Amino acid sequence: MPASEIDSDELEELEQAAEQEELEDADLQALIDEAEAAFPEERIKELKRSVQELGIRGWVQHHVIGKKFNIQHFLIAVGVLLPKELRDSDVPVEALVPVLKAVLIRLLRQRERLAQYNTPDDAVNLIKTARNIVVLTGAGISVSCGIPDFRSRDGIYASLAGKYDLDEPENMFDKEYFMQQPSVFFDFAHSIFPSNFKPSPSHRFIKLLEDKEKLLRNYTQNIDTLEKAAGITRVLHCHGSFATATCTDPACRHKVQGSEIKDAIFKQDVPQCRVCQKRKQDARSKQGRSKKQKTTGGASWKDQEDPDEEDDALPGLGVMKPDITFFGEKLDSSFENALNADRPHADLIIVMGTSLQVAPVAELLTYMPHRIPVILINKTPILHFQTDIMLLGSSDQVVQYLCTKLGWELPKPDPVKEAVGADSEAKKQELSRHRVAPAIVEPARFDQASYIWLWPDAEADTLRCAAQAESQSDDSEQGGNGGENPDKEEEEDTTPAGGNMDAAQ
Ligand code: CNA
Ligand code: ZN
User: What letter would DSSP give residue 244?
Assistant: First the structure.
């Protein structure tokens, strides 16, 4: 996945700066004429199609590197006006490449729906014929297992409100905040630590795709390791998991199994690194001191001669932090590598139980070729990315429906596979009681021509508001009575604005 050095907000700032400049600049008009001659409309269409097919890296390699490609002309031809300091002919290519990448990302976000796919039957046929399905999952598929998601009405963010002194609920998963106050995270962590949870029918559906040799890869944003419990092997934990934990001291990085910090987590203690503690103890006894040990971490042992200096250190240093990706932490290269490996092979994308608010994983849809059909299975609609068939409701109910239509049976939960630190005896007993109710419910179509289908527990308010706002704006454009509706203003306020991907991580 391409890294851009400027994000979409910064790109907009550049464009606004350009707008404020003198538009009757004769040089500018000449540049626009040259750009239009170099990149006529048909060529631009072809280049847009090509970026959807090749991805950014492939596109740059194919069209730009070693070719006579004028980036300034291209940007103008796609409607991006840059400020004067970036329009001059002697601007180095290195200054333009980040802008080019940000513009390509913008173009990629404009995925268009594939109009030939609409119904649950189409979804069934797509799954039946697909051979390389990419499944992108999020917290929603584990909600029925008893693990709350982030953004639902009764999700983690809502439950954190007022309980902890956080400026934003997201701070609970913010690396900088963690280093200042690890105790806040560990006070809460027991409620999401995967222990005796069992996989949901949605997890088992993914396992079934794998058994049928249709699963290319499950990209999961989840950290609960329930994919492992379901027996899924072709899985990438994009945001890490509780399966292991690592010391936060960069000079130590001692790693342990997640099960080793389970007790501390359930006691709501901050798990300390044994190696760092021993080092501090040794340093103390060497200096013939016998001071009471601090319980909230210490300074990096590489930088520290005197253990007393730890008083000035970040409290989060020398703490065993579960290997889950916090806001402010970069993903390792495995996500990008997997995407590059999968993009030539994928023939269907299923997005399940995610709000697609967290970058860069949410950008998966933009980086996969746009000709690949996308089925969304989620409780709430997603409006900031175009998907082809929206199946809205609890994912367990939807996958049960799909399985029945496909003539497939979901595999039974496997009592042998464990999530992190699971108590296998208790788990076996619970699983032996577990039965999947194969009740299938027919969905209702959202409106006549729509590709959106609602199961009873779908939460489609935002969709209704969006549709209403759209019809009102159509009415007012046509001189209708949309402007006279006294509720209009209020409804427009509730219309979803779409996710801010750049701000998310
Ligand atoms: P999110 O932003 O909370 O979105 C969850 C989505 O799932 C929402 O769109 C809901 O409408 C939808 N949803 C809720 N219940 C269901 C259901 N029963 N069936 C279908 N859809 C449902 O969470 P995301 O995963 O999009 O955000 C990514 C974050 C959340 C990752 O960094 C995770 O690590 C993090 N997270 C993970 C877990 C977990 O591992 N189980 C739990 C909570 C948060
Ligand atoms: Zn350590």
Answer: E
**Which residue from 465, 491, 488, 493 is spatially nearest to 476, judged by alpha carbons?**
488
> What letter represents residue 464's amino acid?
R
Q: Is the dihedral of CA 170, 351, 119, 203 positive or negative?
A: negative
Using pLDDT thresholds of 50, 70 and 90, give the confidence band for residue 491.
very low
**Mean pLDDT, residues 277-303 taken together:** 65
pTM for the predicted model, two decimal places: 0.79
| Nearest residue (CA) to ligand 1, atom 16 | 140
How are beta strands 320-324 and 240-247 bridged, if at all? antiparallel
Residue 153 burial (C-beta neighbours within 10 Å; 0-12, 13-18, 19+): exposed
Domains in the chain (CATH in brackets) are 8-108 (no CATH), 114-147+197-239+337-505 (3.40.50.1220), 148-193+240-324 (3.30.1600.10)
Query: How is residue 493 written in tokens?
Result: 């306020």
Ligand 1 centroid from CA 364, angstroms: 16
Please report the atom of ligand 1 found closest to the CA of residue 145.
41
357 lines ligand 1 (CB under 6 A): yes
Which ligand sits closest to the CA of 152? 1
**The pLDDT value given to residue 183:** 93
Residue nearest to atom 43 of ligand 1 (CA): 149
